[in-house]
């Protein structure tokens, strides 16, 4: 919890595109700068007022936050830094921004995540000897024979076995995720959230969020045969995307007339053994709840979780005794895709829509609710989990 209040007053994202798809020709600054500009416009702030830019990224190398800041017209005197906590990078960047403002070191920070595997530089591993051929390193850096870290699907398969989660349960959750995304799209709940980068219909919707048939999900072959339960249909795949928020101090918040916002209640990070990687978001949520001193979990209206796999979400739902309706109400990453370093920032943008853009605080006042809350949780490669609880104000 920051010493001084910090408020997320604007939150925007791009449509999420398949690798080689919607954003195939967009370098990371071209993908992200328009999102920054839209978020600042929503906040009624200019680039000249920004103190710092913090961007989560895993693929670009160097310090893409600086490139994005300059491309977005932010002052050259503003600081810029890039965070790489793998899939948790975007969420970590936003939490860092809240901490910096809470410490009194800045008044306005642009934060979020961006990853563009479609245009990211290739990474090539150096051969161990002159007789070996160099090989490409993918987005997932895990190499079993080098670091003894299980691949993502192996960790999620182990989680499914430990929790007794069947293939049919996972396919049912995946279908539900697609249906939620389709319903959100049909009812225009992404309007005001997604920034179209061109005046085309495809730029205003997530590229992968079409609704599959039940038979199609059931017929897909598992990644780890013969007894595997994870398939391309009930897991998320790497995509391109960017998500940005504007975080301000109490002083700026008051000057702007106290607009609708998200305020951090508390956050937690948790490391686990690599073979328990898929459990990390669950353990981070447990740690977060433990820091809340008897907080009434029933007051949490929405939980946004990065859907690495359906098994992971089902395990979290059962362990935390959550209702399906409050988990990823606009669909999750199984439906829209996983933009790696932007993933956690997308969760915050979705939460902002769920609780602020939708005027949930007005509804709460009418129904007599004192406060409304939303949580996010995210896993990261290597056995790391992040979780945070926010209040809508």
CATH topology of the domain at 6-119 and 237-392: Peroxisomal Thiolase, Chain A, domain 1
The major sheet is characterized as: 10 strands, mixed
Helix content: 25-40%
SS strand fraction: 15-25%
User: What's the pLDDT, averaged over the residues?
Assistant: 90
Number of strands: 12
Q: What's the CATH H-level homologous superfamily of the domain at 6-119 and 237-392?
A: Thiolase/Chalcone synthase
The string of secondary-structure elements, in order, is EEHEHEHEEEHHHHEHEHEHHHHEE
The CATH architecture term of the domain at 6-119 and 237-392 is 3-Layer(aba) Sandwich
Shape: globular
Radius of gyration: 20 Å
Based on secondary structure, the structural category is alpha+beta
Distance between the termini: 16 Å
- Distinct helical segment count: 13
Residue windows where pLDDT falls under 50 for at least 5 positions: 141-150
Which CATH class of the domain at 6-119 and 237-392 applies here?
Alpha Beta
